[in-house]
Specification:
Elements lengths: L2 H27 L9 E5 L1 E17 L2 E5 L4 E6 L6 E2 L4 E5 L2 H36 L5 H34 L1 E3 L4 E6 L6 E2 L7 E6 L4 E9 L11 E6 L7 E15 L2 E11 L10 E18 L1 H4 L4 H14 L4 H9 L15 E7 L5 E11 L3 E7 L6 E6 L8
Antiparallel strand pairs: 1-19, 2-11, 2-15, 3-10, 4-6, 4-9, 5-8, 6-7, 8-10, 11-14, 12-13, 12-15, 13-14, 15-18, 16-17, 17-18
């Protein structure tokens, strides 16, 4: 190789080395691809949010009267049937009056006997009163006559009371409607014997007005704090699955119902039933609207339940401790937040939560928030380092090859 060739090769080699160095530097500065996220996320958005309390109840008439009988007897006339509209005082059925008429005649005879005894006692008393004045009988005899007269008068009153009782039994053998309404139940048939010896038998059930109904529901003790009289409600019944009906809360009853250590309260709702589509006894799935917000920042409610695995939680705690090195109070605060709740006060504790969002490197970053209204799908964010478009974590993705 000549000297000239050597001189030309040196600059070329330098250019090659410089190019290699530049390529290495550019490669080192090249942005590495983001690691794949191991979490399922949902973007924070703005929208309307409604909070409801759900309950199951039974549709009943507002006024439901059980019609019974105070006397026993055999049904000889039946004048009302299922679904009949009846008026107050209308005859529903009659019992056989034979026994009652016989009792009346028997008591009338007792009244007549008592009145005869009274007349005799009155005559004896008047006669002895004259004889005492003539000293033919003693004063003791007159006193005994007065006693017999009083007893006879009392026996007359007793017989008259028995007669009134027998007459009332006869009147009660005719069962009449106590109110205007609709017969929704009948438990007696023609020829059947009504036995009213120990308890009053229920013969009919009459609903006052089927155009106005009520729903009796059982609400969990955890939800009663948000209930107020007059709150709007919506409900559905199985008979009309594609239709929702309106209702309003009328009454919250204080008596608790405890079943298997579960406490519920009875809540009564008013329902308009002008078309009489709703029938007594139907089961209603009720949603009471206890809160409504428009255009609020909201996150999926599932994000409140997400927790890091033990390994990831340990890494997060180490990061917090490293970031707060030399600041003991921050280290203590980071350790105290392992339960994913920030307690700032007794009244606010239940509304403070720690959730996780993805940062620019697809890593989980904790965010402390304060929530407002919440339902099964969304939760309102009142305060916290969140904005529309941020991706909040709802759950961890299943590792490849491992079952859920």
């Amino acid at each position: 190789m000549t000297i000239l060739t050597q001189k030309r090769a040196v600059p070329a080699l330098g250019l090659v080395l410089a190019g290699v160095a530049l390529a290495a530097w550019l490669y080192s500065k090249k942005e590495q691809p983001l690691p794949a996220s191991t979490y399922r996320t949902v973007a924070v958005d703005s929208g309307n949010l409604t909070q409801t309390v759900t309950a199951t109840g039974t549709i009943n008439p507002v006024a439901l009267i059980n019609v019974g009988s105070q006397v026993s007897g055999t049904v000889i006339e039946l004048k009302a049937d299922f679904n009949d509209h009846v008026k107050k005082g209308q005859v529903l059925l009659k019992l056989d009056p034979t026994i009652f008429n016989a009792q009346i005649r028997q008591v009338e005879a007792s009244v007549a006997s008592a009145e005869a005894s009274l007349r005799l006692a009155q005559a004896n008393f008047e006669r002895n009163a004259r004889l005492v004045g003539q000293n033919y009988v003693s004063a003791l005899t007159l006193d005994q006559s007065r006693r017999e007269l009083d007893v006879a008068a009392a026996n007359v009153k007793l017989a008259e009371a028995q007669l009134a009782r027998a007459q009332a039994d006869l009147n009660n053998s005719v069962i009449r409607a106590p109110i205007d309404g609709v017969v929704i139940k009948r438990t007696i048939d023609l020829g059947q014997t009504v036995a009213a010896s120990f308890t009053t038998p229920n013969l009919f059930q009459i609903a006052r007005d089927l155009t106005k109904m009520q729903i009796d529901t059982s609400v969990s003790e955890a939800d009663v704090g948000a209930l107020k009289d007059g709150q709007a409600a919506r409900f559905v019944v199985d008979a009309y699955p594609d239709r929702e009906f309106d209702a309003s809360m009328r009454q919250f009853r204080l008596a608790p119902n405890v079943v298997a250590n579960v406490v519920t309260y009875n809540v009564v709702l008013d329902v308009e039933n002008k078309q009489e589509l709703l029938k007594p006894g139907m089961t209603a799935q009720v949603r009471l609207v206890v809160g409504n917000r428009e255009n609020v920042l909201r996150i999926p409610t599932a994000a409140l339940r997400f927790r890091l695995s033990d390994e990831d939680a340990g890494k997060e705690l180490k990061k917090q401790q490293a970031a707060s090195a030399g600041k003991p109070e921050q280290v203590a605060s980071a350790a105290a937040d392992e339960d994913d709740l920030s307690f700032h006060g007794k009244n606010e504790a239940a509304r403070q939560f720690k959730i996780y969002k993805l940062d620019a490197r697809n890593q989980a970053v904790p965010v402390d928030i304060k929530i407002g209204l919440s339902n099964f799908r969304f939760t309102e964010v009142v305060s916290g380092d969140l904005k529309t478009g941020d991706k909040v974590i709802t759950r961890a993705l299943v590792a490849q090859g491992k079952p859920e």
